[in-house]
Target: D-methionine transport system permease protein
Amino acid sequence: MASIIELLPELNVAFFETLLMVGIALLVAIFIGLPLGIVLYVTDKGLFLENSWIKAIVGVVINLIRSIPFIILLVFLLPFTQWLVGETIGPLAASVSLSVAAIPFYARIVESAAREVDKGVIEAAIAVGASPWMIIKDIIFPEAKPGLISGLTITAISLIGYSAMAGTIGGGGIGDLAIRYGYYRYDDTVMFTTVILLIVLVQFIQYLGDFIAKTVNKK
Model:
């Protein structure tokens, strides 16, 4: 049974691998999931860019990806991962599947956050001739900001769980360490330590996300 002191270097590496995977996936969620969520909202019936076709197509694609269990998505995307990053194991490879899972997850949260914006304010902006981009940039984003940040926090916490799952196929990170030492070697100390690390990380992200969301909330 390995001691925690002996495994400390590997624990540090695993911790930062987890941060790398989750960080990449969060960035992709922001740059792709956020716009998709806005598209889902503004193309809805009665909104200023109403378009049932775009709404339906984007919605179906998002629902399709969300309906696939992450462990299956992980295996399904192996050929794409190999093509994109040149390998199928390690944190960079795992971040591909995490990113694909994060995009629809965050997009739906963005859509829900945008629905909380007062439609009266949007209608008033349309009445004075505001362009769709101005409405999105100056009204929807600022008004939905607390919800967007809270949604990003939820997404980050979900991705931490997914990253641990990625360890089952050599994705690296804390989950991989738990599988290699805690499960295969029946080392309860390592398993317990990795669980504690994940709990601390989740609690920190939740606290930070709640603090930022409250700070930017003007209501």
Q: What stands out?
A: The CA atoms of residues 193 and 199 lie 10 Å apart.
